[in-house]
Amino acid sequence: MEQVYVSCTSLDENKRQQASAQSETTQDKLIICNERPWKPWQPARSRIRGCAMRVQRAMLSLAGLEWYCYAALGVLTALMSFWIDLTVAKLLRAHQWLYSRLEGHVLLQFLCWTLYPACLCTLSTSFSHSICPQSAGSGLPEMRTIISGVQLPDYLSLSNLFAKLVGLICTLSAGSTVFLGKVGPFVHLSNMVGAYLHRLYASACGKKQRRTQGEMLVVASAVGVSSCFGAPISGVLFSIEVIGSHYSVRDYCPCFFAAVCGALTLRLLAVFSREQETVTVLFKTSFPAEIPYQPSEILIFIFLGLLCGAVSCVYLFSHRWILRFVRTNKFISRFIATEKALYSATVAFLLAIVTFPHSAGYYMASQLTMKQLLSALLDSTQWNSISHNATLLGESHQFLWQEWSPPGVSVFKSLGCFILIKLWLLVLACTLPLPAGYFMPVFIFGAALGRFLGEGLAYLFPNGISSETLSVINPGGYALVGAAAFAGAVTHTLSPALCALELTGQSTHVVPILIATLISNAVSRSKHQPSFYDGISLIKKLPHLLSLIRASPKLSLVQIGQFVVPAGTVLQRSEKVTGVQNVLNNSTEFEFPVVDTHESPTLLGTVTREQLQALMLENQNEDLSKSLGDVCLIRPVKLQLSTETTVKQAHCIMSVVREERVFVTERGKLCGIITWQEMKKMIEVLAEEI
Amino acid sequence: MEQVYVSCTSLDENKRQQASAQSETTQDKLIICNERPWKPWQPARSRIRGCAMRVQRAMLSLAGLEWYCYAALGVLTALMSFWIDLTVAKLLRAHQWLYSRLEGHVLLQFLCWTLYPACLCTLSTSFSHSICPQSAGSGLPEMRTIISGVQLPDYLSLSNLFAKLVGLICTLSAGSTVFLGKVGPFVHLSNMVGAYLHRLYASACGKKQRRTQGEMLVVASAVGVSSCFGAPISGVLFSIEVIGSHYSVRDYCPCFFAAVCGALTLRLLAVFSREQETVTVLFKTSFPAEIPYQPSEILIFIFLGLLCGAVSCVYLFSHRWILRFVRTNKFISRFIATEKALYSATVAFLLAIVTFPHSAGYYMASQLTMKQLLSALLDSTQWNSISHNATLLGESHQFLWQEWSPPGVSVFKSLGCFILIKLWLLVLACTLPLPAGYFMPVFIFGAALGRFLGEGLAYLFPNGISSETLSVINPGGYALVGAAAFAGAVTHTLSPALCALELTGQSTHVVPILIATLISNAVSRSKHQPSFYDGISLIKKLPHLLSLIRASPKLSLVQIGQFVVPAGTVLQRSEKVTGVQNVLNNSTEFEFPVVDTHESPTLLGTVTREQLQALMLENQNEDLSKSLGDVCLIRPVKLQLSTETTVKQAHCIMSVVREERVFVTERGKLCGIITWQEMKKMIEVLAEEI
């Protein structure tokens, strides 16, 4: 297309095109020119059009277009989240109904229990892989990479959105048997919606476009968490943690705004669908508000933080081991490469056998869904004391408790079985090549860990730890603290602490939750162990610089020198008009660096293609001996790096200043350029070195 | 001191000094050498010393020294906060006791009511101004400036800490008469403690020092809010908002850690002093948890956000007007310049006359302290309905309610008087030249605004807005939402929303609070109106770039060209050894730029003073004709800006990369350098232009 500009006539044509394009501003686009053929109801249509334009103007005078995009992002993701939840709940109820109708026929029950999740996992895998193979997995490590500035193809496409959505619903409908969650893929979905909205926004704004896609993706990450849990604050904190090294405070208000839009829509939808009476939290708890815990219990919360940190290390190690094993073992890697669906079916079948309620599932409350598991674990009553007086409980609570303490099995035994078995089942489930989140399972596992400690304490101190005041131990509080601490330790983040608060509304426990999360984070971060997402990034060799540097800090000293590429077409100051014309003909770049001479390429600045075209137009009839330096304004380069700049510094500067390309000079001489493509290559090379 | 290095003998001396300094690592410092004169209990002392060293080693293997600094910062500020609160409460009780003992003697009561705050304000003003004039005011605008990278003298000194501490206690003890708060100065105090701890840390770490003062100050800002309110999360959000343009995610965990340490210590101190039974929030509320509000009430919360935004505009305008009036009016500005203490006494006396309980104070609950005012406003019972059945309330609640609804005055009248009169009193109080915070008054004023709306609604809809469910309107909820929205609008931040949540623990209202705060922020930020702190920055002409750019966005296009200063001593590549010696003798710089020739100063890189000294040492006996370029490794400059870089970009890059000085080149030729001092000058020039 750019080749058109060469001849003089086409340049005139081009000017006219530009002029007409300028007159077609956004507002004028709505007015259809009068030369069109006759259409019915002309007056009514033009009146409606006028109204629409006035509304549009009024709306744009109230706030910029980007704010409507943020609001739309919040509302759309909340609608999507609600629809996913509704569909999954129906599919889960169908499975439960079928299973209960087969009561008495163990074989049929076994088939129902095992084949249902196996089929769903197969469907999820084959669907996502046939439409968009990039839709498998959580998607969060890839999103972190994209937000850090490196482009990955197909991760933000609409086909990926469709594949991930359907795959996620299938995965979630497999229920607590495969024990996988929603957050990670949902944040990915929200990012895809965000990227799509940004494309619309960019096309509506044209060249005035002020917000970049990166900003929209940061907002979309916050919205993802917020619309998933109805938790705006933890969404914003998540977006701060996910971004990497420097958070632009400019994104802070948009993040909050979009997150609140998402959370409000999600909660209002629950009200309108008669699920709840008013705007409230997802997991209602009833902790005692007067004396939620004794001050001395803080020491136990600290211990719980240490415990969660230690268990998270075991989990993270096993997770990395199995991921590496699956990739390196010849048989399994070939099996997965060729028969993904069959692999999913096999693993889901295996998981279902273990959790079958007539086998080991009897000891680990396997009939409860993920939501019921968490609700049960956050219950504030002491299960161990109920066993003597079960009729005191409400009906729903009694059902949950009976699942956790079936006849002949104590609460401790079932919690212990759950903790010991689920850990390995979860590690196995993480190898499934389907869209799935790993946050909620980890959160529930942490809750079980905390509950186990809480129940143990309640057994040891039936009248509370301090005998002075009458406050008994609340195992639900321990479960909440454990959940936040374990999820925080696994992901190396602090936003799960806020998430625990917002999910339950239990602000009484804010200090213990934060303490335990900080301590578990400290334990799991010791000795440069990678987090859950960092581990996946490293094993998948994603070009995510921070996870590489965290895994091997010496990489932060690597310099960009070896990765610099030549700067493409370079003009010299004494370039004649004919030379400029050649350059315009043979290259498609938008901006050209100008150096002193090709022999001693001291970088003088840049000229744009438009400048050169104007220059050609002015000088077409004059003499061709004038040089570029005399007739063209060379703009100095705002920012130059040297070959000794480290990759980390270059990455940081480019992402903060939002530069697409930076010139690299040495002793004033142009060495080359660094663009995001080179940055990606650099990080990929570094990833290979680990 | 650096002149010593020139001669050869002194160079040797220097080498020896360096060697001995290196052997004196931190751990070895504790061992006192054995040549010292005899001291008693040698064995016991050495054993204790050995133990201390082992403990030190164990602690440092557990976490870096900086983490202990963060913990110390949290604990110290919490202790300081608790001590301030305790002292202020005693002084306030003394005043209340004296006033109540004078019951029946109106004249004596008048004198007691007016002279007590006037004396305290005089004391606060004269004390702070005689010890450190920089201790007056909130200190937050200055802290924002310092955190953005620009140094201001005396703002982090120990004398300022002492003056501000005593001054703040006096101001707070003047009570709700002068209606000033604690947060701003306390954040400043916390920053001073942080700066002091950083000096200790830097001296202990020596050259290995990894964390900069800027990072410590960001953490200290979070701790300030956290230790003041026991609210860690809003502390962290505050530190993100205060930082300016880019928040380093590296500071995120330290902020959380220190903030939790502060909040925990503050709350534990309350437990140990028998104020509270367990670790709990500062303002206990008892909102109905089952149905906290009807979904339709969200529309009213939105209206409340708009109202708070509009009132905040009035307040901000008046505040800026009075600050400018005080500075420009000849009489008052001369009066303040010469007689600060008398001015404070006069204003405090005037304020006390208006709030005297036998005058207008009767209609605005002036006998309540700031804490009581907020507790009363957040009460969940409807005051208007109590008036018919007052005996139902508890004793403390009845006292608070009686103050708000004294005989013959309806709740609406007293709330209306409070809102109408306090606004202007607060604007007047803001001119007082003493250490004082403006957040809490604004927060309480917002609560009154919300309460007024809530009481009005409760009067209009006595059975709740929706007749379907039995949930009556909770005016306390409106007060909470109003407080967050108004404080957020005045400061242009969102952290007050979190602060409101953490102060009361009312997580049921998280969505309305966030919605109202976002909307009030949108209203108050419209048309580039400066925030409360921005307004002070602009009027005081502080070198804070972001507030300037917010006030006049075209300043973001100003280029650094006109501000670049020459780069001091510049070496040329062909410099001979004798020339180098002259340079070393005549300059004190640590690093020298090297150019091609002085006539065509193409920047080649830099050499350090140490390199040059080594060079001199090697070549002292050889021929002196060798040039610098042949014998010395010239390190390329990692980052170069051009004269066309904007001030905003340069500021952003320098603060993100944490560079002390950046070279400015044009067409490869060295133009000069930019350091933080030049940056400060640039911003001061820009501030003059507004």
TrEMBL record, chains A, B:
Q: What is this protein called?
A: Chloride channel protein
Location comes to: Membrane
Which chain regions cross the lipid bilayer?
67-86, 161-181, 216-240, 252-272, 298-317, 341-365
Q: Name one Pfam family in it.
A: Voltage_CLC
Keyword annotations for this protein? CBS domain, Chloride, Chloride channel, Ion channel, Ion transport, Membrane, Repeat, Transmembrane, Transmembrane helix, Transport
InterPro entries xref list: CBS_dom_sf, Cl-channel_core, Cl_channel_volt-gated, ClC
Gene Ontology molecular-function annotations: voltage-gated chloride channel activity
Record keyword Magnesium present: no
Question: What would be one Gene Ontology cellular-component term for the protein?
Answer: chloride channel complex
Gene3D superfamilies with a match to the protein in the record: CBS-domain, Clc chloride channel
Q: How does it sit in the membrane?
A: Multi-pass membrane protein
